Q: What sequence folds into this?
């Protein structure tokens, strides 16, 4: 029997949609509680009551942008304008007098920071870099550390050496000691890096953090016709303070934010207030009922999440209430080697394709390399294979969708196969330099939690020898062990 | 001549025999615009007795030009007489005007002028951009941005509303925003562009060189002097016929208007819905401006002819094309019916090209079609969108022979170099002699075949040869004669303008692909797709995926009467495992419950909406 209260939008959900079209609104909630659903409903509602007002949906990843676009088409027959923050930011930047609009992101950014680091090392006799506390790859670790630290400094809006030297650095672990001298050097690198972004033929451009800052600073130069009346942000926990600020200062009427700190798989720290999102009073909602999965899947996922001591203590933590929908027990398969893993994937996909040819199957792995291998395998068998890293990915058509843990966030599939639960892969063997062990484990755990909560109907987990320690955190009463047929 | 007139329909015939001075034929694809233009050229010769030397045909590009020439050839064969008039592109016409200008001492250039790409000025003299756009460290990007801005203001596209002729016309306080691949958006200040232009002027003078747009700008200046050059040109060409007029730039339009006087007769043909070169300065209002201008100027001498019967395509293709642009300006002649267009949904370019290869084998198996009846049109071939590349790979894998007319700028530039050199060494020698000398000297095979090719099309001396390279750069395409080989043809939609094929494949629809780029010019992309659709005579295949965040051409096609096919894997699927009955029962139940939930939720949301 289906419980009566669930035959309609739950009351907190209703309040979110009905919220006055002006001002800001924060919707938090566990996976599958309907944050994205509400954002879409709100978009369609706003479009209906005020057809001439413009609406924009922003997200952090291209995959999610596409997914939301597809959903909007499917559920509301509405063509929703949806962009990633970077894409949108660059378009606005071009309208300002800031000269550089080439985005320096990812590997490019890393190279530039490395270049800056080397210059500082070479020319600054007194430079003092923090000790990385690792045996191997010291240099690489240091670079990663610097990248993180610079992102943090910029993302938090620190613009002077003075401020940085005195700021209390939260959100960083204790394994790397950062002295005052270290901070001086780190700031040297930051300054050099900024210089390269301004002057160097190969590195000239703008990074994601400056992009957000410039948009805030030059906000008055953004033409009115490019300012959306309403901006909706999904998975906002992945954005930085500055980025949220840029968003809230650009929208004309309202910002609606959907977020779940329980799914924070990048390193971010901020409060909504810092970000200029005014959700005081009753402008914030928390949804804790999940509508996506079966009771069986959520039980396993909840139980697994509770092992994360750090998160459970977080004031933002809310335990999901169990859904009413009953389903098949999640399955766990122990595979002695990779070839068995492949066999298991083939078998499961074949079953689903035979009985449910119109369903979607999410195949989740730790790397694109592995996904490519699985893709080839399934392709050989004539299964429609979708590689989600391609920009134009389609999430709704039937078939196997190959996706990494990271980019699975916000998506959902009828059936999910989580592969490669192997020691050293998940949790990953090296934690990021300077990161707290506990914090790191918490994030790795969230990754698996996110992946599990993508499933609507069935969930198969595949552990490959040496098994991931996370496997021990799944309690046997909540899953079925399976073997190859 | 009557034989030819009989081949035409009433409207076409009206256009041919119209005896006013200014005629505009405005009509959709496949309605016989080019055919009518060719007939009118012949009619002008044979019935009106106009000397063939007084006739000038102008077409947009080399490939469009060959369409017109082929038609003229065909017609002269039918009636057994009629010569080939000069058929030029605007660039080669401008080059010719310059020659006269030099001859009369009215040009700022001297004999033996060399043409080059704008950016090559900077290679020649790197100091041209020194001190300009100093904010930007990537000087290659700066060079490109300055060159692009310099071209656009002279064409009268994007950055300025009218073509500028002289650096003095630039407003110092303007800021031009130019997008480059290397460096994103670059801001070029008015005074910087002015300096750039001034320096180029000096360089051009010293080295006796100019660029393609420089030809047009100088030709306009010469004509507007109204001196000897003008007189000679205006007298030489009294009857002017222009094909694909919708894609002329504002500067080219100005050239035309500067050329004519009371004695001139002009016929233009075009289709605003096929304007696909706005990035090069064309303008979808071209046809309208022409009509407005001449109907005001001399109402009694102006006429506008519209053609509606499409002779090219089946009624199925015509219906789709009309639906797509939401107009019905063409009607299939005789309601010729055939196959419905096929819209094939795939989710990757690889699958799409695979499908094409399989289908081509199918189509040619029974001899219904030869390989050369088939053309594969792609939107783009770049690192990020390797559509052309993938087509060629798939055809190669399937052992299907193909000819690709690919864009190859470098090749053209070096050819330009070589031909420029020829004009020094063999000045005033007949082309026939040059060929034998080149062969004797064992010169580059490609150069020789180019010269041969040019001779076939009427080149007589080295100056003519330069005319021909100038033209081939208009659509930077390979110079190989197509259809010579019995191959499938692979080319861009742009390059297929004005052409027709029995079987056409178009790929690859979808966000960023077609419409192309992350911020596409939707209007232009739609027109381009329309051009693609209307190339097909019998069978049309459209491949790609549905657009999600951008306008979905595929969805639009599916609104029409087409065959919708889904092709999501290249092999037939193996499904050799099943859930156990008990498992299936449980999953079925879950599915049911989720479905109910979703339906309820939707209803609830709708109620909420109505509530407001
Ligand atoms: N009130 C409701 N009744 C029934 N189903 C609902 C309701 N709200 C949401 N759903 C369904 O639950 C599923 C999950 O919703 P949604 O994707 O919006 O969750 P989410 O909070 O954005 O999750 P995530 O944090 O994983 O992104 C969707 O399939 C949606 O249709
Ligand atoms: N009156 C006619 N009778 C028979 N066939 C005709 C007639 N007019 C044109 N055709 C044929 O129709 C086809 C299209 O003609 P043409 O290429 O001149 O069209 P167009 O209007 O120039 O097309 P586009 O806009 O694509 O350049 C050609 O094969 C041509 O021979
Ligand atoms: Mg969501
Ligand atoms: Mg034509």
A:
């Amino acid at each position: 029997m289906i419980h009566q209260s669930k035959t309609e939008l739950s009351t907190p959900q209703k309040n979110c949609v009905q919220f006055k079209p002006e001002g800001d609104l924060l919707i938090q909630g566990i996976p599958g509680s309907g944050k994205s659903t509400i954002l879409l409903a709100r978009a369609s509602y706003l479009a209906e009551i005020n057809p001439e007002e413009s609406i924009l949906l922003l997200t952090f990843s291209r995959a999610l942008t596409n997914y939301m676009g597809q959903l909007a088409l499917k559920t509301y027959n509405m063509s929703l304008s949806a962009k990633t923050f970077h894409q949108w930011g660059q378009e606005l930047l071009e309208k300002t007098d800031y000269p550089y609009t080439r985005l320096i992101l990812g590997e490019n950014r890393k190279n530039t920071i490395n270049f800056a680091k080397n210059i500082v090392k070479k020319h600054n006799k007194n430079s003092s870099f923090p000790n990385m506390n690792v045996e191997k790859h010291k240099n690489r670790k240091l670079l990663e550390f610097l990248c993180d630290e610079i992102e943090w400094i910029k993302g938090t809006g620190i613009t002077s050496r003075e401020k940085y030297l005195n700021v209390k650095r939260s959100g960083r672990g204790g394994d790397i000691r950062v002295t005052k001298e270290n901070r001086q050097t780190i700031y040297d690198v930051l300054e050099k890096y900024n210089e390269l972004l301004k002057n160097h033929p190969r590195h000239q451009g703008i990074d994601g953090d400056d992009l957000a800052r410039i948009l805030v600073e030059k906000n008055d130069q953004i033409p009115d016709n490019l300012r959306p009346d309403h901006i909706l942000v999904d998975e906002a926990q992945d954005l930085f303070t500055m980025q949220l600020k840029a968003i809230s200062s650009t929208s004309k009427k309202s910002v609606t934010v959907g977020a779940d700190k329980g799914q924070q798989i990048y390193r971010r720290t901020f409060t909504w207030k810092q970000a200029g999102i005014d959700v005081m009073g009753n402008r914030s909602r928390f949804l804790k009922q999940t509508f996506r999965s079966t009771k069986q899947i959520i039980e396993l996922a909840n139980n697994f999440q509770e092992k994360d001591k750090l998160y459970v203590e977080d004031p933002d933590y809310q335990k999901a209430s169990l859904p009413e929908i009953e389903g098949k027990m999640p399955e766990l398969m122990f595979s002695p080697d990779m070839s068995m893993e492949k066999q298991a994937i083939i078998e499961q996909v074949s079953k689903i394709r035979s009985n449910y040819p119109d369903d979607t199957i999410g195949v989740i792995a730790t790397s694109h390399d592995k996904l490519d291998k699985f893709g080839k395998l399934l392709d050989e068998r004539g299964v429609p294979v979708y590689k989600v890293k391609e920009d134009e990915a389609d999430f709704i058509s039937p078939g196997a969708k190959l996706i990494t843990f990271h980019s699975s966030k916000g998506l959902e599939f009828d059936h999910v196969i989580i592969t490669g639960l192997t020691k050293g892969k998940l949790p990953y063997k090296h934690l990021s330099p300077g990161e707290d062990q506990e914090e790191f484990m918490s994030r790795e755990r969230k990754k698996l939690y996110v992946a599990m909560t993508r499933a609507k109907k069935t969930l198969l987990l595949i552990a490959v020898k040496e098994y991931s320690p996370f496997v021990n955190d799944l309690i046997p009463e909540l899953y079925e062990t399976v073997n190859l047929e | 001549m009557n034989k030819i007139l009989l081949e035409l329909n009433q409207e076409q015939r009206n256009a041919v025999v119209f005896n006013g001075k200014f005629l505009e034929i405005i009509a959709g694809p496949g309605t016989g615009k080019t055919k009518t233009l060719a007939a009118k050229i012949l009619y002008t010769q044979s019935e009106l007795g106009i000397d063939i030397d007084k006739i000038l045909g102008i077409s947009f590009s080399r490939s469009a030009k060959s369409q017109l020439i082929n038609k003229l050839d065909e017609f002269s064969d039918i009636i057994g007489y009629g010569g080939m008039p000069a058929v030029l592109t605007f660039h080669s016409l401008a080059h010719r005007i310059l020659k006269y200008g030099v001859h009369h001492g009215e040009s700022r250039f001297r004999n033996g002028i060399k043409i080059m790409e704008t950016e090559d000025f900077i290679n020649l003299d790197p100091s041209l951009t020194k001190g300009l756009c100093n904010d930007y460290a990537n000087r290659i990007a700066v060079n490109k941005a300055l060159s692009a801005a310099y071209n656009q203001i002279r064409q009268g596209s994007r950055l300025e509303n009218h073509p500028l002729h002289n650096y003095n016309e630039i407003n110092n306080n303007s800021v031009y925003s130019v997008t480059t691949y290397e460096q994103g958006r670059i801001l070029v200040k008015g005074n910087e562009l002015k300096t750039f232009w001034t320096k180029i002027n000096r360089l051009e003078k010293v080295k006796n060189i100019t660029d393609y747009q420089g030809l047009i700008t100088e030709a306009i200046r010469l004509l507007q002097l109204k001196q000897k050059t003008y007189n000679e040109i205006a007298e030489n060409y009294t009857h002017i016929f222009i094909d694909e007029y919708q894609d002329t730039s504002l500067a080219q339009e100005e050239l035309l208007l500067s050329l004519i006087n009371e004695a001139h007769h002009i016929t233009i043909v075009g289709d605003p819905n096929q304007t696909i070169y706005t990035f090069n300065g064309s303008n979808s209002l071209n046809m309208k401006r022409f009509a407005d201008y001449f109907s005001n100027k001399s109402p009694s001498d102006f006429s506008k002819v519209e053609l509606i019967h499409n002779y090219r395509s089946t009624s199925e293709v015509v219906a789709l094309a009309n639906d797509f642009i939401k107009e019905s300006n063409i009607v299939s002649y005789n309601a010729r019916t055939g196959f419905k267009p096929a819209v094939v949904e795939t989710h990757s370019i690889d699958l799409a090209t695979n499908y094409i290869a399989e289908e081509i084998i199918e189509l040619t198996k029974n001899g219904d079609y030869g390989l050369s009846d088939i053309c594969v049109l792609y939107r783009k071939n770049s690192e990020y969108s390797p559509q052309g590349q993938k087509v060629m790979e798939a055809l190669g894998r399937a052992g299907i022979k193909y000819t690709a007319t690919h864009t190859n700028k470098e090749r053209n530039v070096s050819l330009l170099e070589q031909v420029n050199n020829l004009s020094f060494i063999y000045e005033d020698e007949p082309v026939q002699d040059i060929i034998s000398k080149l062969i004797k000297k064992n010169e580059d095979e490609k150069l020789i075949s180019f010269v041969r090719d040019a001779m076939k099309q009427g080149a007589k001396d080295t100056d003519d040869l330069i005319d021909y390279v100038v033209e081939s750069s208009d659509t930077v395409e390979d110079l190989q004669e197509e259809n010579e080989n019995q191959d499938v043809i692979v080319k861009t939609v742009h390059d297929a303008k004005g052409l027709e094929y029995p079987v056409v494949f178009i790929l690859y629809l979808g966000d960023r692909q077609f419409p192309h780029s992350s911020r596409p010019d939707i209007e232009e992309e739609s027109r381009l797709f329309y051009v693609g659709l209307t190339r097909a005579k019998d069978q049309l295949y459209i491949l790609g995926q549905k657009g999600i965040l951008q306008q979905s051409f595929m969805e639009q096609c599916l609104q029409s009467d087409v065959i919708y096919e889904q092709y999501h894997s290249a092999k037939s699927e193996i499904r050799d495992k099943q859930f156990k009955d008990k498992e299936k029962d449980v999953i079925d139940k879950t599915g049911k419950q989720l479905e109910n939930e979703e339906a309820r939720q939707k209803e609830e949301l709708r109620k909420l909406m109505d509530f407001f």
Remarks:
- Confidence is low (pLDDT under 50) at residues 1-7 of chain A.
- Chain A touches chain B through 76 residues (CB under 8 Å).
